[in-house]
Batch of 3 targets.
Target 1
Amino acid sequence: MLKKLRKLLISFLLLWIVANHSKLAADDLIDSATFTDSQTSSSNSAFNSLSFLQDRVSAQVTTRYLQDSNVFLRNYETEASILNESVLLGVKGGGLPDEPGLSYKLLYGGNYFYSMTDDFEYESPADHSFLSGFELRGAFTTLRLDANIEEQGGYSRSEPFAEGISSTFGEARNLGYQRKSLGLGVSRELNSSELGLRLSLDQYEYNVGNLITRSYEREKFAADLSWFYDPVFLAKTRIGIGLTAGKEEINQSVLGSQTFIAPSVRFRWSYSPKTAFAGWFGFDERFRDSDDFSETTPVYGLKGLWTAPTDTQFTIDITKQVYPSVYEIDDNVATKKFSVGARQAFDGGIEIGLRYFYEFSDYQPTQNAGALRSRTEDLQSLRLSLGKSLNLGTFDDAQVAIFYNQLVNESTKDYYDFERNQYGIQLKLSL
């Protein structure tokens, strides 16, 4: 069934989420895509995440020079000088989001890596992404279509540069892969409530690399039904319930596909354009037709943005998910993530940024024969940046910054241990 549905996928692309830190609503933090799209820590909906597209046509170029250690996770002595070019090109059109009509957003993202060290070359020196979103709005009903293609080289090279509250999640951070996804959603405004349905199809192809010795394919089909209510006693708040169900399969696993059902309680709170929180809690029940495997895992999430009176911007992202492992082919992984960030602007165009996240991944076999492959992972990341806005005339925005990234993983299996450090300078130009 999944292979037949895969033929429906449309070829467009996606880069990581670039969040707008000054204006955000709770609807931007979670929607149905949060529950149907796996190994992402926030919504992948084009209309909810492409805040980069503020104008009809937008362009941004970022150049980074950095010293990078441990580029290949198994080669602990590797240090290289890297030149990284990132390009974002986007276009949007159609009517206003609060009026009936048709709107669209399209984004191309390119991420290019050049080694300036003679004894080091990238196996895959470029990431390419397209993201597309189409929205048809009526008086009370809205239809949305998202179609994406993403190609990432892996080795956690892109994730540390993400500037939004969202990032890749768990194993997807380190593995090179190609992803195709299609999402179709419909929402209906009722009296003091909203009813929503989303169908999504994801297909991954993981590349052979230092962490896996063969290629793998993973497919997931999911449906999410949600209902949100506006309680009279809680202003600017929506409380709801949801049910996510579907099938997920790693084709190379002889155990077959997993069926999952995940009910949850959800909420959205939009206090102001600068303060919003959203979250959920529930459980993920998984089972297989091929044997008597059954597993229940609590899942939850909390995402938010708050701007203090001093204009300090704080973000938070707490997520727990469960998904089939590619590292350990017969295991499921329950990953907990805690991420906080802060950004402070000063007079003269000076800006300081800080982000920290911690992930704990628990690998559990789904059959007794795989018990020896059980393990845990502790991953920590710290990012510091200091930037200065520039007035370059022809550019809408320009900034030069210095940065430092650290990524450390400790595993109960030493093979997966690594420590990675990056520091450098970047120049960002926006048209």
Note: The chain has one domain: 2-430.
Target 2
Amino acid sequence: MYESHWGLTRPPFGGELPTSGFLGSRSHQAALLKLRYLIETSKGAGLLAGQPGLGKTTVLEMLSRELQADENSKNSESGAARYRFVPVLFPQLTPSELLGYIASKLVHAATGDHRPGTADSSLQVIEQHLTALTAAGTKTILLFDDAQLIEDRRVFGVIQSLMNFSQPGKMELVTIFAGQLELVSAIKRMRPLDERMAFKCLLLPLSLEETTQYVTGRMAAAGCRANVFSTDALQAIHLLSSGVPRRINRLCDFALLVGYSENLARLTAEHIHAVAEEMLSAMAA
């Protein structure tokens, strides 16, 4: 709606955090590097944690895209995919349901068909497919997003059992847990699992400098050539969002809309504070 007013080719802050050209903090880049190294070297397991809105899911999606792009550029002679990502989107499954879910994902990718069985049969299916995938040169990555929602400690026991399957060159499996900060303490209380974590990546809010780079970078990526947000506006955005990318997105998106409706040429701190107050009023209504 407001794109032409600001000289944009697309909304720079609409929707969730972008996975294409995402400009995050140093902690985002460090997490991406560590998780990629974890996968490429089969280090076992890793943890990605941070408060809501910092971009955990975005980092995981970027990780998948980067590895896929790298795979496409190398054009494996065998024709087999180098990586098989298995996202677990339902963290509140029972141990038996979890095994069945993972087995179904592996089997469906291979044959397009799977009939749920017992926990033991699911475990056998998982072992067989992990072995076959490894033999074909494919590494399997289990991704547990929102893992702080796992309430049944037995589920962690099942996951640890799956991790025990991993053998270099025979059955390669990498496990990544992503979740809110309480996940760190939850895993720490399970010492055997905690000791399997090769990397613990903590996402941090953006600093003022990083917030400025994020906002101006997103605007430039959307085709904007003008400095729409003044210096004091950028400071206000950082203050009001606490450096959380999702909040920055919402605040900037609404500010651009209001600026368009009022035919403004530039947004200042006064505009940002007014927009923030309006957003809070709408939430309270």
Note: The radius of gyration is 22 Å.
Target 3
Amino acid sequence: MLRTLAPDGLRFAFGTLTVLPVKVTRWDRDAARGGMLWAPLAGLTVGVLAAGAGLLLLALGAGNLLAAVATAAVPAVLTRGL
């Protein structure tokens, strides 16, 4: 049971909550449990990518409004609007 938490749960979390391409090999209760335990990491990854996009635009001299829109759009795109 614990061995499913690492690889299968991680793939389950990213495969379910994001559009990032992962190969989910198991769709059972143990994998879903592991996936929900790894869900905060998927959210953190999406948040870091969104913040990175906003900071990159600000560093490149884009306006605050464009950086804010990009920061809000990245999670919408990466999670299919979830």
Note: The mean pLDDT is 89.
